[in-house]
Description:
Layout: H1 3-15, H2 28-31, E1 34-39, E2 44-48, H3 51-78, H4 81-85, H5 89-97, H6 100-107, H7 113-132, H8 146-154, H9 161-173, H10 183-186, E3 199-205, E4 216-224, E5 229-236, E6 240-247, E7 255-257, E8 261-266, E9 273-280, E10 287-290, E11 293-296, E12 298-307, E13 313-323, E14 326-332, E15 335-341, H11 349-358, H12 362-369, E16 376-383, E17 388-394, E18 409-411, E19 430-432, E20 438-441, H13 471-480, H14 488-495, H15 501-515, H16 522-533, H17 545-558, E21 563-565, E22 577-579, H18 582-600, H19 607-610, E23 611-615, E24 618-621, E25 635-636, E26 638-639, E27 645-648, E28 659-661, E29 663-668, E30 674-679, H20 696-700, E31 705-706, H21 711-716, E32 718-722
Helix pairs in contact: 3-7, 3-8, 6-8, 7-8, 11-12, 15-16, 15-18, 16-18, 17-18
Amino acid sequence: MPRKAWILNLLITLLFLPLPQHLTATSPSLAEQVTIRRDTFGVPHILAKTEEAAAFGFGYAQAEDHCEEIALSYISARGENAKYFRTGIESDFLVKRFDNYGVCQKNFSQLDPLLQKIFRAYAAGINHYVSQHKSELPAWIPAINEIDVLANIHEGSIGAVNAVIRRLQAKYENKPAPPQISRAELLPDEFAADAEEAGSNAFAIGPSRSVSGKAMLLGNPHLNWSSLYWEAHVTVPGKINFFGSTLAGLPVLRAGLNEHLGFVQTNNAPDMADVFALKVDPNNAAQYIFDGKPMPITKREVAVEIKSPDGSLKTEKRTYEYSHLGPIIYRNNGQAFVYKSTQLDSYRHFEGFYRLSKARNLKEWMAVMKMNLLNYSNFTYADAAGNILYFWNAQLPKRVNDGTSYDLDVPAETSKYLWQSLHPVTDFPQLLNPRGGYTQNCNNPPWFPSLRDPLDETKYPAYFERGELGLRPQMALEMLESQPKFSIEDVKRLKFNNKMLLADRVKPDLIKAIKATTNPSEDLQKALTVLEAWDNQAAADSKGTMLFLRFWDTYSAAVKQPFAVAWDKQNPGKTPYGLSDTTQALKALEEAVNWTRKTYGSEAVAWGEINRYRFNGIDLPADGAPGNYGMFRVLRCTPQPDGKRVAGWVGNDKPLAGFGDGWVLAVEFAKPVKAYSILAYGQTTNPNSKHSRDQIELYARHQYKKIWFTEAEIKANLERAYRP
């Protein structure tokens, strides 16, 4: 054995020996049972004797990488933003109006006893790190407990309330409001993300379409980069061996692989909430009539502490109304409106993720899904036995299916429309081992996981998810139909495909309209030159991307229906296309030429000259574009004062800028498993660590790092090993 490998083996062995008493952690029984092994990209491979000890190490390692960001999320979940930072008062009142911390405290016992231990140990690991590094960390970072962990998860269930109120105001007061609640407002991971773009890509390829004859899996979520995906590998011999990702502040991994199988999620849009319209008693505004009987409207005072400029705390109080169904969020015309969501009553969501990560085959994995612990998401699955699966999942209430609209408010003078149970997961759309050999989901409704194997939406209630097949999933389907078989290298390459499907669909009409114009202006002639030379890509060196996007944004905002041919479910992968109004399109194009030239100096500016990856001295051209333009390679950079758009660092104490592809996973279930990932912004937000910027150059070159999964791989690529 080479000397270096011998020393590393000895070091790992020594680290598992009991430490002297004066060196033990605050929770010695846990700290002594876990070793954190960081690989050369800083990814922690957590090896523990018990699952509880692994959770302690998981929390400790996560705090090492993102301590302040974790603390901020926990403060928000308590409704204490204003107490610490003088901001976020409305968010604090909303969280406390729904008693987020209190209901989590009351319902924590719903979790499996093992998960209760894991939540406690995870919090203890974070606290242990903070206690060791008080001199380096801000004084405001609070100690946390297991209830905080659950409250941070549960806070997302409250996110849609303000949007619902705006829609009620629009209906009853003629105030402006969005036409529907966006996915961004419904789901906990996408609070700040653009509703058009929030989501993920995923596909699975079965043995019949795989060069190796093995199943393959690809997944990549699209969030604000400030959401902070974080990688880890958790191993407890005989219990769990899972590599994957989660978000900073969450206690278990949510997507990834073990030696037997892998799964990823893409957000779906199930209707898990209703607004119940109670009839206020016309003779007594302090009560309502329900099932023919008067019921009291109760009141509760909610207090939020607010930090004053001098550092002292003042308290602001508000009084809110409640019914037996829950908080009253709006009153109008003798009605009191109550918001209810199955997410509000869901506390075991992350228990579901943890159980899935321990499954060893499809049967065990499906047994977890049938427990109905997970409250939303499309799941894409592949395994070593060659199975692939698309599974639409939700904690979906069984509703009276009598034609009643559940779009906004539902009559609630009686209990007729109140939920009594949830749909079992056997009711949901799913596709196992399809004839076409692949499944995909890019946040599209569940009916087209494959063009060769569509699902029949008429077999499902009208309140199941509906909608068009967007351009991004159509781009995925086009790629998956582009060749008969794929290798893992093909899968890795497809992820970074910069083709813009929207340009394929409308640019021919645009060019035709310019050429049909008598005496076209100089600006139109220049636009024609740029567009004909452009390859419909959003690559860093593409010249034409900016001009086209500016044109489309201007044009589509000016017309009701921008396409000549709308989407047609009889031709789902080829529609929409064409321009409905070429006169308006040419006006928009002339505006785009002038704007692009004025803003960037040329109508033919390179996309990567505008868009940049920036990380502490690194400044690279960026590629990709928002998904609603038909991009599988999703990226949106944030405008900066210097005129550039940036994904990455934009200043000290500022969150990461940028949105879109952050974490990417590609797996082939060969023997041994071949797995690759890339985390664009690195493992940590600590600017003093090389791991805050050591993956961006790979990412910019469309390259991956190998996932080191076996003990031999971990030892061969070990940077350091230590106890918490």
